[in-house]
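Hi R.,

As promised on Friday, here is the backbone we talked about, encoded as structure tokens. Could you run it through your design pipeline when you get a chance and send me back a sequence?
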């Protein structure tokens, strides 16, 4: 399945709360990454602060997330969820519980 098909599946699964195909993009801050979910998990212990890691699946795609992370002291604390689209990962400023509440 290609990225466009996967992003359309995510949009449908989330009722276009995160990504709107008609709008043509993300409705929140999103960053694409070549890092794997395991790379994000391996980096997390080095963050200044983080909550417990959560994993799950949304629209058939695995994700990893934290309710709150602070990468470096002095940085803003924020939520982080990373969805694996296969050929790329997308990091969102979103709590992982968002997906559990819609499952």
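Update: got your reply. Pasting your designed sequence below so it's all in one thread:
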């Amino acid at each position: 399945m290609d990225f466009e098909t996967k992003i359309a599946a995510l949009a449908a699964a989330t009722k276009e709360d995160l990504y709107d195909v008609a709008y043509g993009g993300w409705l929140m801050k999103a960053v694409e990454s070549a890092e794997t979910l395991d790379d994000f998990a391996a980096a997390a212990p080095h963050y200044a602060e983080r909550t417990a890691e959560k994993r799950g699946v949304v629209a058939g795609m695995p994700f990893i997330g934290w309710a709150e992370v602070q990468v470096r002291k002095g940085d803003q604390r924020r939520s982080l969820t990373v969805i694996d689209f296969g050929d790329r990962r997308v990091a969102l400023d979103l709590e992982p519980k968002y997906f559990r509440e819609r499952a």
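One thing I noticed while checking it: Residues 14 and 101 are 10 Å apart (CA to CA).

Thanks again,
M.
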